[in-house]
């Protein structure tokens, strides 16, 4: 293989460590072992039937050619209605851009907002692709360590303190991956003020909205129109493989985003857009809300169970489907040397797959792991029993 074909700049792009574990899990499964998967960040329910029906009908009846580069006007209007009903905010449909997953939106925004040498503030731990998106366009990922004391979220003060001469903006997520923690209205507003004073951009990833338990997530659009909001049909709507997301951008950026979208993607997937028109129907929402309740039941089971086992999760996260857990006590007892070794042992000895903290940054990463409660509750119970045996060996 001619390795000189590889762009050397890509050496700074990190891959997911959990993929190695996933490969080992696949090997175990090929050998007939049942692995309990708590590593993958996807809902793992079948696509809701009304969405499938809509997709099937569209395939038979609709034109499957390209839509507009920024998405079909019907879906934009549906999403504008959703913002009015859900958040009581008016969003002009023209500010909505339909994308290939939330990932497509993040890629477009990286090109729109970041020039080579620009710094972007991110929480550590955080969604790992964000640092890589920043690096891919020549920017500098400026990681701010966040811990339990701030519920793993940034604040206006933390942003102000970390701001450097080359900093251009901040990327936030609420609820966050890997911690499931929310940003409240005051936090969003403080961060927005702090960044606006410095003429920077605020990008908020809201792709876990809808998956909150008891508390409704506040959209950054409730705080200002002058923000970039990313969302997706992957998580609450359970359409991961349909690769559809959207973003809301300030009106002044619409034309440039359109140009970028034409060049990078031509258009988002037509079939998925047709299917997505059905997600806000009451019958679909009912199914999705029932699924959300199941996630809540799983969280309510798993959180105390993990605490009883000795994992450290000081605060109950209100959203997403993740628990970010400290394993310090197990490291002290010599069960493993760090989070990667811990996850490797858990997989090899108990056939339980979880993600090491090192996939989400550096700060505290060797002492944390992430559980995705996307497995059904019976499997979660089996996993807890197995972990109890493993940790008390
Ligand atoms: C915080 C966050 N943002 C964005 C994404 C991208 O998701 P998708 O491209 O499927 O919308 C993910 C996926 O796990 C995520 O966790």
Short description:
With 393 residues, the protein is of the alpha/beta class. 41% of the residues lie in helices and 13% in strands. It is globular and about 60 Å long.
Commentary on this structure:
The protein is of the alpha/beta class. It folds into two domains: 3-46 and 284-391, Aspartate Aminotransferase, domain 1; 51-279, Type I PLP-dependent aspartate aminotransferase-like (Major domain) (Aspartate Aminotransferase, domain 2), CATH 3.40.640. It has helices at residues 18-30, 49-61, 73-87, 101-113, 128-136, 156-162, 185-197, 254-265, 270-276, 282-309, 328-332, 339-350, 377-391, and strands at residues 36-37, 96-99, 119-124, 140-145, 167-173, 201-205, 228-232, 245-248, 322-326, 352-353, 355-356, 368-372. The strands form three sheets. The chain has a seven-stranded mixed sheet with strand order 2-8-7-6-5-3-4, with helices on both faces. Helix 1 packs parallel to helix 12 (339-350) and helix 2 packs across helix 9. The protein is globular and about 60 Å long. The protein starts with 17 loop residues before the first helix and ends with a helix. The mean pLDDT is 95. The protein binds pyridoxal-5'-phosphate. Pyridoxal-5'-phosphate is lined by residues 41, 101-103, 127, 173, 177, 205, 207, 232, 234, 240, 245.
């Amino acid at each position: 293989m001619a390795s000189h074909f590889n762009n050397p700049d890509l050496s700074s792009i990190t891959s997911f460590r959990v993929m190695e574990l996933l490969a080992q899990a696949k090997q175990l499964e090929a050998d007939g072992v049942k692995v309990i998967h708590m590593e993958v960040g996807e809902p793992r329910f079948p696509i809701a039937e009304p969405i499938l029906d809509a997709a099937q009908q569209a395939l038979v009846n609709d034109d499957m050619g390209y839509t507009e580069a920024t998405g079909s006007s019907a879906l934009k209007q549906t999403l504008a209605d959703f913002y009015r009903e859900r958040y009581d905010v008016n969003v002009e449909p023209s500010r909505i851009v339909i994308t290939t997953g939330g990932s497509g939106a993040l890629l477009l925004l990286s090109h729109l907002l970041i020039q080579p040498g620009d710094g972007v503030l991110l929480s550590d731990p955080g969604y790992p692709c964000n640092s890589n998106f920043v690096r891919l366009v020549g920017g500098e990922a400026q990681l701010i360590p966040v811990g339990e004391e701030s519920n793993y979220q940034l604040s206006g003060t933390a942003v102000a303190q970390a701001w450097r001469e080359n900093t251009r903006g901040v990327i936030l997520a609420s609820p966050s991956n890997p911690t499931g923690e929310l940003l409240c209205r005051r936090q969003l507003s403080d961060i927005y003020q702090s960044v606006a004073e410095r003429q920077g951009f605020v990008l908020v990833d809201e792709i876990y909205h809808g998956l909150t338990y008891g508390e409704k997530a506040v959209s950054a659009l409730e705080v200002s129109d002058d923000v970039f909001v990313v969302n997706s049909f992957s998580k609450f709507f359970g359409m991961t493989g349909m690769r559809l997301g959207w973003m809301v951008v300030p009106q002044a950026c619409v034309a440039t985003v359109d140009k970028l979208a034409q060049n990078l993607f031509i258009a988002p997937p037509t079939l998925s857009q047709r299917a997505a028109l059905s997600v806000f129907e009451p019958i679909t929402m009912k199914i999705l809300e029932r699924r959300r309740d199941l996630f809540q039941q799983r969280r309510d089971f798993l959180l105390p169970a993990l605490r009883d086992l000795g994992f450290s999760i000081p605060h109950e996260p209100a959203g997403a489907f993740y628990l970010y857990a400290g394993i310090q006590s197990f490291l002290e007892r010599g069960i493993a040397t760090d989070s990667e070794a811990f996850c490797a042992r858990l997989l090899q000895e108990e056939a339980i797959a979880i993600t090491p903290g090192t996939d989400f940054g550096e700060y505290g990463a060797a002492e944390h792991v992430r559980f995705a409660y996307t497995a059904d509750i019976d499997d979660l119970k089996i996993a807890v029993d197995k972990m109890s045996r493993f940790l008390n060996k």
